[in-house]
C-alpha cells in the first residue's frame, strides 16, 4: 500500500534501542511503524532526528503573547490591576487574532501541537487554530462579577455551537468559568446548567493561590474543589488549572470524579503561588498534564521547560530524586495532556494514534551520548530543535519552515498590536 | 581609528531603548560603544541581534558530558557508587579531553564563554580550553581519603604552575579540594598551605546536602563553612559551590570573608538536595554566581535555564514575586560569575571590559514584543539562539558556525569514548 506520508529512518523516543524506523501515515492516523521499506505520496527524511509525540499545552492564554515582558517581578494584584487588566480591556478582536497567531508560531516551533486556551473573543482564536492547522480546546473566559456576565456565557455557548468538533475534530470547546473568586456560585450554576445541556466540559482555574482557597472557605465553607463538586461541575468533566493548594480530601474528590489537572510549574513559581502536590495526585491516579499559562507569567510557551521543571521541582519537594522520572514527565507533556483535553487516540507514537508528530534534530551537543532517549529529551534537549511538525497527519513545519503561516507577517502584526495597546 | 572588530547595528541587553549601536573592539577589549559610524578590520552585522555578555558557568565538571543520560532518577549514593564513580574510574586522558570538547561546543553554542571546572586530568581540560579559545578557571578535584591524595595535590600544584594566567590570562587555576566529606581537616591543611604558597584560590563543594552538614557537625563540631573558616581557607579567596544548607552564621562568615557562591539550582533540585537561601545571601552582599554542575545532574550546560530557574524558584521560596528580578538574574549569570571566578573587567558590555560577547538572534517568536530586554532574555529567550560568540576579542562562533572546533569530530569522538566507558 502507499501511505500519504512516510517518515523514513527516524529514531523514536519510546524505543529503547539505537535503531531507526519508518513511520507510515494514512489520513490523520499513524498506520505503520516498523523497519520494512514502505512508500508514501510524500516522504520525509527522518535521519538524525527523533520522533516525539506533539506536546500538549494544557493551560494557556495564547493572546497574552502581546503582553510578554510588559510587566514582570511585581506583586500579583499590583501586576493584574495596574498592568495586565487595563491593557486587556483595550484588546480588539484583531489583537486577539495576532496575539494567538504569535503563540501558534511559538508553540509549533517548540514541538507543541495542541493547546487548551481560555480568553476573550475566542472566535478569533478558533480562526487562528483553523488556519494554522493546530489542535486546540477552546473556552471563553467567563466572569460572573461583571454586568455582561450573561452575554459572556452566551458567547461561550455560541462558541461551542460554532466550533466544537470542527476541522475533523481538531477543535473542541469547553466552558471557561474563570475562577472561584470571579465566578460566584449562582453564576456557576448557570454555567453548569448550560454546559450540561450542550454536553460541554469545563476548563477552570482552581485552587491557584492560598488566598483563593482561604476566601472560598470563608465565603462558602468549602474549598474550591469541594464547592465545585457540590455544584455538580465535575459530573460534566473538568480540566482544572493549577490545583496548587489542594487538600487530601480535595484530591480524593478529584480522583473519584476524574478531574484532570493542568499543572503550570513555571507560572506557579514566577507568581510565587506555591508548588502543587503532583506526586500525590499521580499516586491517586489523577491525570496530570502540563501547561505554560499565559506568557505574562512564564514568559514563553516552551512545554519542554515545563516538563523538565516538573520533574526537577517535585524530586526536591519530595526529597526523593526518583520521583517523576523522565518517562513520567514525558507522559505528562504528551498523552496526559491529550487525556486532560479530551482528545482520543492522541499523545503517543503508536499505530492507530493521531499523527501529531514532532521530529527533533538530534545533531546537537546535548543529544550526545545516547544512553536513554527519554532522559535526553526531558533533561537535556532543547525544544527549539523541533524541525518538522505534523498535526492530524498534515505537515505544518518542515525543516524549520512554516507551510501554513507567514511568520514575518505574524511578528510584524503582533508587534504593531502590542505597541498600540501599551502606548 | 580602525578597530580590530566592529559589531554593527546591534541591540544591547542593558540598554532600555529600542536603538541599535556599534561596538568597536581593540585587542581583547571593548573600546567603543555608540552610534557613530566606525570601521574595523573585521565587521560583524549585528542587525536583528542582541549583544549579551558571555555567560559564566561558575561550577561544572565538563567531561561528565560523557555520562549524560547514563543514570538518572536514582538515589544519590546508589547513583554515585553504582553508576558514576565506577565509570569515572575508567576514564583516560583522552576521555577527559573529548568529554570537555563536547562541553565546550555545548557551552559556546548556548552563549557561555567562561566556566569553572573541577575534575581529574585537568591538563587535558586546559588543552581543550586553549584550543577552543574559551575562558576558564580550572581546578584539580582533590580527595583526601585515597592513597594517592598527595599525588593529586601535586598535580594541582603543577597545573597552577603550568597554566595559571596562560593564554593572555584566559586560563586561571584554583585548588580543588572536593568536599568536606572527602577531604579531612588534615588534608585540607596541606591543600591550604600549598595554595597559600602559590597565591592560588580555592574551588570547593560546600554544604551541598543536609547530610554533609550533619556529618561535619558531628565530626568537627562546626558547619562546613565554619570549619573552612577555622582552617584559614577563606583568607585565600574561595569559590564555594552549592551552599544549599548554610546558617545565618555561615552567611555572616561568607560575607565577611568574601566567599563567592556558585548556585546550581537545577542540580540541587534534580538530586533533591534543597534550595539555597540565595535572596538572603544577596542581601548580605555575598557574590552569587550560577553554575550548571556536571551533566549527570542537570543534564545540560544551558546557563540561561539556570538563570531563569534561579529567578523563578526564589520568588516562590520567598513567597514574593519581586525577588530576584530579571536584571539580578542576568547579573548572576554574567558579571557575578566573572567576579566569582576572579576575572577582572569581565561580564558587562561596557567600554574597557573584556570582549566576551554573545549575539543572540532576536528574530524568534519569544523575542516579540519588546518591552523589556532583560525580562525577554531571562524569562522567554532560548540560549540556542546564540549565533555569534566572541571570547577575549576573538570570534569563536560566527552565524552558528564554529571557527575553532570541528564539531562533527567532537560528537563522534566523544560518543566513541562514552560507549567504550559504559559497555
Question: What would you say this structure looks like, in words?
Answer:
- Two copies of one chain form a homodimer.
- The first copy, chain A, starts with a strand and ends with a helix.
- In chain A, strands 1, 2, 3, 4, 5, 14, 15, 16 and 17 form a nine-stranded mixed sheet that branches.
- In chain A, helix 12 packs across helix 13 and helix 13 crosses helix 15 (373-380).
- Chain A is built from 16 helices and 17 strands.
- Chain A is of the alpha/beta class.
- Chain A has helices at residues 76-88, 93-109, 122-132, 149-163, 166-169, 185-198, 210-220, 224-230, 248-256, 265-270, 278-283, 303-317, 326-333, 335-341, 373-380, 407-422; strands at 2-12, 21-26, 29-34, 39-45, 49-53, 55-60, 112-119, 135-142, 171-177, 201-206, 238-242, 260-263, 288-290, 357-361, 386-391, 394-398, 401-402.
- At the A-B interface, helix 2, helix 10, helix 12, helix 15 and helix 16 of A face helix 2, helix 9, helix 11, helix 14 and helix 15 of B.
Greatest interface: A-B, 74 and 74 residues
Low-confidence stretches of chain A: none
Rg value of chain A: 21 Å
CATH architecture of the largest domain in chain A: Alpha-Beta Barrel
The CATH superfamily name of the largest domain in chain A is: Metal-dependent hydrolases
**How would a crystallographer describe the biggest sheet of chain A?**
9 strands, mixed
User: Fraction of residues of chain A in helices?
Assistant: 25-40%
Classified by CATH, the class of the largest domain in chain A is Alpha Beta
* N→C terminal distance of chain A: 58 Å
**Class of secondary structure makeup of chain A:** alpha/beta
Shape of chain A: globular
Number of strands of chain A: 17
Mean pLDDT of chain A: 97
CATH topology of the largest domain in chain A: TIM Barrel
Count of helical stretches of chain A? 16
Write down the oligomeric state: homodimer
What fraction of residues of chain A sit in β-strands?
15-25%
Our count of domains of chain A comes out at: 2
Amino acid at each position: 500500500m502507499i501511505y500519504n506520508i512516510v517518515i523514513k529512518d527516524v529514531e523514536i523516543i519510546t524505543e529503547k534501542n539505537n535503531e531507526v524506523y519508518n513511520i507510515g501515515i494514512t489520513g490523520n492516523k499513524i498506520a505503520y511503524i516498523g523497519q520494512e521499506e514502505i512508500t508514501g505520496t510524500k516522504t520525509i527524511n527522518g535521519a538524525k532526528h527523533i520522533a516525539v509525540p506533539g506536546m500538549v499545552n494544557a493551560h494557556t492564554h495564547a493572546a497574552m503573547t502581546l503582553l510578554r515582558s510588559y510587566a514582570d517581578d511585581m506583586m500579583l494584584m499590583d501586576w493584574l490591576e495596574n498592568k495586565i487588566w487595563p491593557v486587556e480591556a483595550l484588546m480588539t478582536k484583531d489583537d486577539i487574532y495576532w496575539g494567538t497567531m504569535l503563540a501558534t508560531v511559538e508553540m509549533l516551533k517548540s514541538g507543541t501541537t495542541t493547546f487548551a486556551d481560555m480568553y476573550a473573543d475566542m472566535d478569533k482564536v478558533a480562526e487562528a487554530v483553523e488556519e494554522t492547522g493546530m489542535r486546540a480546546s477552546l473556552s471563553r473566559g467567563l466572569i460572573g462579577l461583571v454586568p455582561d456576565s450573561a452575554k459572556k456565557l452566551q458567547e461561550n455557548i455560541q462558541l461551542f455551537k460554532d466550533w466544537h468538533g470542527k476541522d475533523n475534530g481538531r477543535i473542541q470547546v469547553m466552558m471557561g468559568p474563570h475562577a472561584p473568586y470571579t465566578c460566584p456560585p449562582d453564576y456557576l450554576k448557570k454555567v453548569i446548567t448550560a454546559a450540561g445541556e450542550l454536553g460541554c466540559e469545563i476548563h477552570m482555574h482552581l485552587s491557584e493561590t492560598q488566598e483563593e482557597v482561604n476566601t472560598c472557605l470563608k465565603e462558602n465553607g468549602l474549598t474550591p474543589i469541594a464547592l465545585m463538586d457540590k455544584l455538580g461541575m465535575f459530573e460534566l468533566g473538568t480540566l482544572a488549572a493549577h490545583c496548587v493548594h489542594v487538600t487530601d480530601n480535595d484530591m480524593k474528590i478529584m480522583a473519584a470524579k476524574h478531574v484532570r489537572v493542568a499543572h503550570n510549574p513555571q507560572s506557579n513559581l514566577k507568581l510565587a503561588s506555591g508548588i502543587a502536590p503532583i506526586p500525590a495526585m499521580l499516586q491517586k491516579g489523577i491525570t496530570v498534564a502540563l501547561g505554560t499559562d499565559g506568557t505574562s507569567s512564564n514568559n514563553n510557551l516552551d512545554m519542554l521547560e515545563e516538563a523538565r521543571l516538573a520533574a526537577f521541582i517535585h524530586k526536591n519537594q519530595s526529597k526523593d530524586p526518583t520521583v517523576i522520572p523522565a518517562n513520567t514527565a514525558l507522559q505528562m507533556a504528551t498523552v496526559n495532556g491529550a487525556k486532560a483535553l479530551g482528545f482520543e487516540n492522541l499523545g503517543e507514537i503508536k499505530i492507530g494514534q493521531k499523527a501529531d508528530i514532532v521530529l527533533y534534530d538530534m545533531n546537537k551537543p546535548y543529544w550526545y551520548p545516547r544512553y536513554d532517549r527519554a532522559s535526553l529529551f526531558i533533561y537535556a534537549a532543547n525544544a527549539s530543535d523541533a524541525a518538522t511538525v505534523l498535526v492530524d497527519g498534515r505537515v505544518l513545519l518542515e525543516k524549520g519552515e512554516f507551510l501554513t503561516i507567514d511568520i514575518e507577517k505574524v511578528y510584524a502584526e503582533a508587534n504593531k498590536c502590542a505597541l498600540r495597546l501599551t502606548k
